[in-house]
Design brief:
Strand content: 15-25%
Number of domains: 2
CATH superfamily of the largest domain: Reverse transcriptase/Diguanylate cyclase domain
CATH architecture of the largest domain: 2-Layer Sandwich
Low-confidence stretches: none
CATH topology of the largest domain: Alpha-Beta Plaits
Largest sheet: 6 strands, mixed
Oligomer: single chain
Structural class: alpha+beta
Shape: globular
Distance between the termini: 20 Å
Order of helices and strands: EHEEHEHEEHHHHH
């Protein structure tokens, strides 16, 4: 990459909440390793641990940020690591984009600003998204991007996903992993519903807001893809 080259990406910087109260270095190493394995095909800069209690990484596609947030939330719960997560969408500028200590650009600055805003938040003076006490995140862009739409959309999504019961989670996961989503009867039988298995699965999915969440997720991915294409288009026009 040349010095004046710029590439679009989404930077994610996470910091341990109240890190002085507990040493989470080993847990962070595990988290970074699992994130790199999950997103190995879509990374511009590998996730790494910086400054002892901070996770840093850059994804190529804006749309991968939703999956990344869900995975970080899962790992945060599993490894008992409370997190602030700042996300910045935009350009990255540096000759060595694989080096987390050298890479630079607006996306990195915006992610750092988002993280700083979360840490300074007091009495609701900032709109960071708290989906539970141990996990807070915020998308931010210093440009013209209407980033607040992402924060609102994600709050809506996580609010509905996190209120699901264990049974609802089990059924949703089974449906999402089923090649033919119409075969609810198979899932119902597998879960022990001897009578009307398909009907029972449909009822559980309705209570879990399955279709509502699924459509909202698709809409979010489209929005993130649109933002990325629009920013790239504006950049191409400015170079002409």
């Amino acid at each position: 990459m040349l010095e004046d080259d710029r590439i679009l990406g989404i930077c994610i910087i996470a910091d341990v909440i109240a890190s002085r109260k507990a040493d989470k270095k080993e847990e962070l190493k595990k988290m970074v390793s699992m994130l790199n394995e999950t997103f190995k095909e879509g990374l511009l800069t590998d996730f790494t641990v910086r400054s002892g209690d901070e996770i840093f990484g850059i994804l190529r596609k804006f749309s991968d940020s939703y999956r990344a947030l869900k995975e970080m939330l899962r790992l945060s719960d599993e490894l008992n690591v409370p997190l602030y997560v700042g996300l910045g969408l935009g350009f990255i500028t540096n000759r060595d984009i694989t080096n987390p200590h050298e890479v630079n650009g607006p996306a990195i600055w915006d992610a750092a600003d988002a993280l700083s805003m979360l840490k300074k938040e007091k009495n609701g003076t900032h709109k960071g998204v708290q989906i539970q006490k141990t996990f807070k995140f915020y998308f931010y862009s210093s440009g013209d991007l209407p980033y607040e739409a992402l924060n609102s959309h994600l709050y809506f999504l996580f609010e509905r996903v996190l209120k699901r019961t264990e049974k609802q989670k089990e059924v949703v996961e089974a449906v999402e992993n089923l090649a033919d989503s119409n075969k609810y009867g198979e899932i119902g039988e597998r879960l022990g519903y001897d009578k009307f298995p398909s009907t029972n699965v449909s009822k559980i999915l309705a209570r879990a807001d399955f279709n509502l969440v699924s459509n909202a997720e698709k809409s979010l991915i489209k929005l993130l893809n649109y933002f990325q294409k629009q920013i790239q288009s504006n950049e191409d026009i400015s170079r002409d």
